[in-house]
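Hi, here's the filled form for the chain we discussed.

Project: internal
Contact: R.S.
Residues: 264
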Amino acid sequence: MGVLPLQSHDNGGKLYIVGTGPGELLQMTPRASKALEEADCIIGNGFYLDLLGPMLAGKEVIRSGMGREVDRASRALALAGERVVAMVSGGDAGVYGMASIVLEVAERSGTKVAVEVIPGITAAISAAALLGSPLSGDYVTMSLSDLLTPGEEIERRLDLAFQMRVPVVLYNPRSRGRPHNLDAAVAIARRHLSDATPVGVVRNAYREGEERLITTLGEFEDHFAFVDMHSIVFIGGEETRIWRDETDERGIITPRGYHRKYVY
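And the returned structure, exactly as it came back:
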């Protein structure tokens, strides 16, 4: 296959699929901000739209709820035939976000609308920064939502991930409708990791109500009530450890391996 040229949008229409990052506007990339400025119509889930605040001023705003992703993608593509439209997706649109379904709908419909995916800071990266450096090397991300992936398949993948003994980041860890998915994930982790393995949880990263929790795998079950769908859970690998600075502030670090090569 050869190099594919970018589609022209000489007719004035274009669809941006914008990763808006964790929520705070300062954490949004300049390219994402520019795409939102260019758009005359912004469409997305109401939760993520509300985080954009003043960036919505003067725009047509179309709100959509959870479970309406296919309809949202179809409508955005239709509007982008003659207008500049921004489809917003929290974090990075290509990581558990809207990019894949928009591109699938575009492919199946045969539309000629120009589509550009704008990257954003995904939740694992933003939340990791608030914990220290838990993802310094190899790691795995997994979503515990079984709305699109069967529960048995999620558990199979989790078992393989924890066998690697690298940090595992859990998206969509615990909802009111699926409170036991986290229990199952932790039970699988404990088959392969010691109870002393560090666990970190960040809730509402870079948004109002931001909180974090640092505990261990053996004690994590006592803190399940802290975890919700606005949380990201980090289960450390075999080298991950909890560190403290001079003020006794705790964080999590997974050494990358410099200690095996250098003296410092």
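Let me know if anything looks off before we file it.
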